[in-house]
Amino acid sequence: xxxxxxxxxxxxxxxxxxxxxxxxxxxxxxxxxxxxxxxxxxxxxxxxxxxxxxxxxxxxxxxxxxxxxxxxxxxxxxxxxxxxxxxxxxxxxxxxxxxxxxxxxxxxxxxxxxxxxxxxxxxxxxxxxxxxxxxxxxxxxxxxxxxxxxxxxxxxxxxxxxxxxxxxxxxxxxxxxxxxxxxxxxxxxxxxxxxxxxxxxxxxxxxxxxxxxxxxxxxxxxxxxxxxxxxxxxxxxxxxxxxxxxxxxxxxxxxxxxxxxxxxxxxxxxxxxxxxxxxxxxxxxxxxxxxxxxxxxxxxxxxxxxxxxxxxxxxxxxxxxxxxxxxxxxxxxxxxxxxxxxxxxxxxxxxxxxxxxxxxxxxxxxxxxxxxxxxxxxxxxxxxxxxxxxxxxxxxxxxxxxxxxxxxxxxxxxxxxxxxxxxxxxxxxxxxxxxxxxxxxxxxxxxxxxxxxxxxxxxxxxxxxxxxxxxxxxxxxxxxxxxxxxxxxxxxxxxxxxxxxxxxxxxxxxxxxxxxxxxxxxxxxxxxxxxxxxxxxxxxxxxxxxxxxxxxxxxxxxxxxxxxxxxxxxxxxxxxxxxxxxxxxxxxxxxxxxxxxxxxxxxxxxxxxxxxxxxxxxxxxxxxxxxxxxxxxxxxxxxxxxxxxxxxxxxxxxxxxxxxxxx
Amino acid sequence: xxxxxxxxxxxxxxxxxxxxxxxxxxxxxxxxxxxxxxxxxxxxxxxxxxxxxxxxxxxxxxxxxxxxxxxxxxxxxxxxxxxxxxxxxxxxxxxxxxxxxxxxxxxxxxxxxxxxxxxxxxxxxxxxxxxxxxxxxxxxxxxxxxxxxxxxxxx
Amino acid sequence: xxxxxxxxxxxxxxxxxxxxxxxxxxxxxxxxxxxxxxxxxxxxxxxxxxxxxxxxxxxxxxxxxxxxxxxxxxxxxxxxxxxxxxxxxxxxxxxxxxxxxxxxxxxxxxxxxxxxxxxxxxxxxx
Amino acid sequence: xxxxxxxxxxxxxxxxxxxxxxxxxxxxxxxxxxxxxxxxxxxxxxxxxxxxxxxxxxxxxxxxxxxxxxxxxxxxxxxxxxxxxxxxxxxxxxxxxxxxxxxxxxxxxxxxxxxxxxxxxxxxxxxxxxxxxxxxxxxxxxxxxxxxxxxxxxxxxxxxxxxxxxxxxxxxxxxxxxxxxxxxxxxxxxxxxxxxxxxxxxxxxxxxxxxxxxxxxxxxxxxxxxxxxxxxxxxxxxxxxxxxxxxxxxxxxxxxxxxxxxxxxxxxxxxxxxxxxxxxxxxxxxxxxxxxxxxxxxxxxxxxxxxxxxxxxxxxxxxxxxxxx
Lengths: 663, 155, 126, 325
Description:
The complex is a heterotetramer.
Chain A: E1 4-9, H1 21-29, E2 34-40, H2 46-58, E3 63-68, H3 71-84, E4 92-96, H4 98-102, H5 108-127, E5 136-138, E6 143-146, H6 150-161, E7 166-169, E8 184-185, E9 190-191, H7 192-205, E10 209-212, E11 215-223, E12 226-233, H8 248-252, E13 258-259, E14 268-269, E15 272-273, E16 285-286, H9 292-296, H10 301-305, E17 318-324, E18 326-329, E19 333-335, E20 352-354, H11 355-362, E21 383-390, H12 407-421, E22 426-431, H13 441-450, E23 455-458, E24 461-466, E25 472-478, E26 483-489, E27 491-496, E28 498-500, H14 504-511, E29 538-540, H15 550-568, E30 572-574, E31 580-582, H16 592-596, E32 602-610, E33 616-624, H17 634-638, E34 644-646, H18 651-662
Parallel strand pairs in A: 1-2, 1-3, 3-4, 6-7, 6-18, 7-10, 18-29, 20-27, 21-22, 21-27, 22-23
Antiparallel strand pairs in A: 5-30, 8-9, 11-12, 12-17, 13-14, 15-16, 19-28, 24-25, 25-26, 31-34, 32-33
Helix pairs in contact in A: 1-5, 2-3, 5-18, 6-7, 6-15, 12-13
Chain B: H1 6-9, E1 21-26, H2 30-39, E2 48-53, H3 61-69, E3 74-79, H4 90-107, E4 115-119, H5 125-142
Chain D: H1 2-15, E1 20-25, E2 34-38, H2 41-47, E3 48-49, H3 61-65, E4 72-76, H4 78-89, E5 98-103, H5 111-116, E6 122-128, E7 131-136, E8 139-144, H6 151-154, E9 166-168, H7 182-188, H8 192-203, H9 211-215, H10 242-254, H11 264-268, H12 276-290, H13 315-323
Parallel strand pairs in D: 1-4, 4-5, 5-9
Antiparallel strand pairs in D: 1-2, 1-3, 6-7, 7-8
């Protein structure tokens, strides 16, 4: 029989004051299997630990129970002591007779009796403990950042700064994301390009960073420290290594009628294009949907003008496979489609635009060269109406139930910029609330009102009506004045709600990372682990986790990078040995466990088993990836056959504890 | 002997009845909450014995039935508040499982007050102690658990 | 008897607590100028239990039941249904019909679609 | 119908589309019908039956049968097809190894019920248009199908099949006036004392023969926890009186969210314990708490116990709501 040592701590008078520790040691010492039972003033002290170590050595103990303070306090201490003596640390159990006994009970007899029961339960548990060894797995010292917006850029830069190689996968031809499309940034009004493009260049020049633009992640396997990722490099029909970005082809391409997606379709570009002047990588891309050469083989102008010989109409999608230790999701956001909000006449009048479109209309590199002109007739607007919460805070089935967070501030910015550049323009902002929590945010909004004379009106716009004369009639309520307003506007700007980029959902499936009902990635803990996904090794950066402005995004990007660096700095990952494991002889392969696992730690294998009469049976059985499992035990209860059990908290251990307490 | 004879169920010696209570506590919230109750010296009856589990979702209905079978008078399960689970979703599964189990026990005529699920965070030491006091009082008032032991008793 | 707030909520099936006071209902109401109390005020007043004031106001007959407010409300509050409920509660009372058959000849003009008369008749009397 | 099924089975066998047929075989008595695997046209010709007594659900046998070489033909009544679909959903049966033929069913007959109607010595039975003609040693007797229906058929929920490759006979429709929860509601309406007494009366008759488990199409575990000494709850005979209770609660819990309410447990119980009352209570609770759910209905919807919503009902209030006492 396994020899068990029981050590009862006085904790000075903390325990001994209420619990008769000697009596506890005596009572527990009489139990079958207990080889030694002793008490001592401070078990956690050097001499107390020595007492335990001596007993382990001399009595050849196979298990140790320490009746002391909470395991949350000193479990690690005592495990270490046992390990030093060659006893597996997981053969140590703690009976909590301080926080859960001596400190809460005053009656000595009662407290002593309870201490004995708790000791008994721990003894019964330790008898069933198995020596556990934490699994180790190596860490591939390379990170993958999915998404090349400001979030992905910042995360990649920070990781590279720490000396680890990083790859950025961006689905567009250039990194930069939404921020590259913005004009100015709140609350400082510095220009987005001025602060973003240096970072983009830094990414391109940093030798630790590789940029896979016009690429997508197509397959992910493995687990924390050892992901294996397949990246699809979409054919851009231009050899990236040869293209110099001179732009000759984009000038000569005869297909001029391609809606310019970078300018949100407000103007046109060619079929071969570089999205914007500061694109990284500055490489042309052929839009296969519009290129005459690719569609019907009639053209080839770009190939002719390209001095570098970079054009390759025969280019195909290629796949590269790479290993990573950590993956960062930075897939960002986009404004929702407004097609279902007919009342605002978006799509009916070209002078009803979204805020992101306004950014382009005000951007010096935009379709109007930075002069604010109405898209319909190119005239200066004299009355501009902003509508807030278009699709945000909506439970009408058309929009999003959450607050998009950034609209109040960027609208204040837009209003301010318009008033500054065109003082003759009247600006109205219709709001439900103005939400400005953030450093210098409320001051910024107040400046818009007080210094720039923007008219903020509490109330919503009910309808925008395009008039035959080209103007827009805006019907809205002014709740403070208790009036219905009818304004004639030249331009209406809608603050469309933001939503996660649609590429996030399929990516989450590839990563087995969980998402909320709005398709934002879920954090491992909403307060304490906000930049980690519940899936180990997957981190979250930027608006893919929830609506965020630039400062917040950059802060979170840095935090995600720090988490990645912390992971990559390790040579080996030592797992928690208290993980689930499946008895494949009992497993039905029914997938119940897989469905409740929050970490995607369970997969299925077809395995061969010996059947009756020398036959071989193939069965589907569950297998737990110990490196990914966090040991919650949800699967153990979902499993109907009892095949799934948890190391360290096994069914038999818990039932032995129950028995010891109840008998 | 008639089942409800005073000698057998101890009526008249009510003050001597001390229920056996098993409390399953998740490691991250409720066990820490219990520790906080201890650190704050908030007393609750010694009848409560805590079993530490990593997450409330580790608690198999079998454990609860086992406890009753072995003579427990009440079983309480504590976990993180819904939405605050250390493992993100564990307590949501717990909630469904225990809802169904308790409903079944009630359906079988077993006093529903003998089973309880309570969400206690690591900061709620006072709530933990209060919950335990209340639960022990409830179970004590119910008296000894016999329904789960005696279901097949023929007379 | 003017019904209670609970009664109005029950008849209309509206949850006034969902209102976030954005005023979009009133921003969209074609009958706004005609009304003493506007759609958003209706929601607010029902929520505060001021049913009597509403019931006494001619506003309840000014609502066209066009349901623009119902269509546009971002929170699904459905103000028109509240107005409908209050109007119903009023005309259900003895002798409170808004319209009697005798009134019709005075109202009728050749441009008025007959359907409007029928609708008004259905809406304004028991 | 029987001849139609026989012919179709024989055809599929000879085409080589399947190499075995899972059906019902005649026994010594006409009401003693046994699930059987037929391997040849001759065996089919000799033994295959589809009679009013073919209540047995064949889907569970597929778990073992589908592991063998070749494809197997199975005949499924509507309720059986739900069990089949659920087992496929749980990966217990490889769908491609089974050729499922749905057969129409208007309720199967309970021989015990016939006996209590005074009909004994049955040597033949035929069903047409809801009427049952029984040849007995004492002459011909006629009853309606409804009069002597199996317990499970009385609360039939649908006559529509799931997941079948083909149908013989007509496809039915869901039973619109299915009142399968009425019995559960009756028990719920009792006081706790009455409920306790009721179930004590029922469950105390259990002899732990395990028939309910062995027939249950949701109980297909490779090794049942009650047969596994390591599980801590294994035993054939009750160690103390509580064990019976434990056995039935655990069994019901293990199949909760997976039980299709096929009613086989009650059909095979030699002690006539209404075991479906336990399973149906779980189904009713699931429907009320988490929205209507039918196991085996479709391959996607997650089982309610492997799913959750942030605003699910709390255990305490749920019991108060469900218990009503």
